[in-house]
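U., I forgot to send this yesterday:
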Amino acid sequence: MNHAVVFAAQQYLGFELCRALLEKGWTVTAVDDEVDTGDKWMEIGRNANIQYVPVEKWDRELPIECRLFLPYYDQVGGRSLQCLSPSVIGNIKSGEDGLPEIVRIFPNQTERNIGSNSSDAASATFYLPTLYGGHQPSQFLFAQLLEGKRENESKYEDDPSGAIYVKDAAISILKHSGRQGTFSLRSLSENSWEEALSYITEDPFAPIEKKRSMIGKPIIVHPSKCHESILKEQKLVMNSF
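Result:
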């Protein structure tokens, strides 16, 4: 199998999933709400193995023997993406050999019945803590602080149970995406969120929400970079867009 269909492809995790798949030699069909691609799409859009399709122009046919990635994680802050709506996902037509391999990705403590379908022949579900680095959305605390917002005025979507580099998360999801079951990506350090935060602010910080419970078999994600390097990259990306 070497063909992936990635929804929310211009969003945060969806974009990194596309990048990780291309780096592993997959052919990628990328689907999202927007008719036009954003500036960051130039980072991967020139690759001959990826095709971008706005959801309104997608024919809802899936290639035979493809793997379908549904990053519900990208509906951060209560956002609603048309490409991940039940009206779109529920009407996906399978190939001649039945349903594709389906990979669903949620934040920790998401209701289990969201986007689920017990009739899937092969599926993997992943639950994730805070992802950071690169194009992190402004709904997250790290992005807000790097933008210079005051902590006591911030509302954020962070899960203090962990902080994982978004590129490492995408690579780990791809590595384990052929397995059936429910999995929880976890940081190597139990205090990774606080450790990463210490590189942004020296002030003591009490999370708005308690650490959320983690669901599924644990998958430990070993960091490819240190917190400081990841946050420097994130700030550089923020300043370039």
